[in-house]
Amino acid sequence: MPNQRQYSPADRLLLQADAALRTLLPFSGQPHRPTPAVLKNEAELSDSEARHVAGLMRINHTGEVCAQALYQGQALTARLPRVREAMERAADEEIDHLAWCEQRIHQLGSHTSVLNPLFYGLSFGIGASAGLISDRISLGFVAATEDQVCKHLDEHLEQIPQGDEKSRAILEQMRTDEAQHSTAALDAGGLRFPAPVKFGMSLMAKVMTKATYRI
């Protein structure tokens, strides 16, 4: 990755616009790793099972859209170069999840959420605001967000039909990666958010999941 510290503020804005397009346009994000589902057999799912799994994967895809926006917003306003670079690395890793979920959704005969641009904009604003407050708050927000994502992934893994090895493999790898991102953010100096703040974030996450399950 090029050293972002050599870029002007205008350059960074253009890079953010490019990142937004690569996140929101179908099949534009190129994964760095092959999908964990590639060696798994396709399951024989009923129509209702396929719709349900597609809904769960659509939620996870939108979650990755939000993660991209959050990291890009934080990278734009981070004060310390090392924090900016950490955010950019995390965004690159989340591209894998974004691409894996999108591919699986289409394999199940469904579509990504039409609400993704809205959630991208909201998440970008939250990330940029957190970065403006302080890098410690920004890193703490990453850790708290990834903790919420891990909880959702655990819930989805319980709901995935036992025979759906492809979806399960994707979610299990995502669960591992997200937990590592949370730990890394705290180790880098992130603030541990108190329980009331995490509860508020959980309520916001529920709004997103209910809205994107079908649309």
From TrEMBL:
Keyword Transferase: no
Membrane-spanning residues: none
Membrane-topology descriptor: Peripheral membrane protein
Coiled coil (UniProt feature): none
Cofactor binding description: Binds 2 iron ions per subunit.
Family stated for the protein in its record: Belongs to the COQ7 family.
Protein name: 3-demethoxyubiquinol 3-hydroxylase
A Gene Ontology biological process term: ubiquinone biosynthetic process
GO cellular component assignments: plasma membrane
PANTHER family, alphabetized: 5-DEMETHOXYUBIQUINONE HYDROXYLASE, MITOCHONDRIAL, COENZYME Q10 BIOSYNTHESIS PROTEIN 7
Cofactor(s) needed: Fe cation
MF (Gene Ontology): 3-demethoxyubiquinol 3-hydroxylase activity; metal ion binding
Enzyme class, broadest EC rank: oxidoreductase
EC number: 1.14.99.60
Location(s), subcellular: Cell membrane
Keywords: Cell membrane, Iron, Membrane, Metal-binding, Monooxygenase, Oxidoreductase, Ubiquinone, Ubiquinone biosynthesis
Record-linked InterPro entries: COQ7_proteobact, Ferritin-like, Ferritin-like_SF, Ubq_synth_Coq7
Domain of life according to the entry: Bacteria
Lineage of source species: Bacteria, Pseudomonadati, Pseudomonadota, Gammaproteobacteria, Pseudomonadales
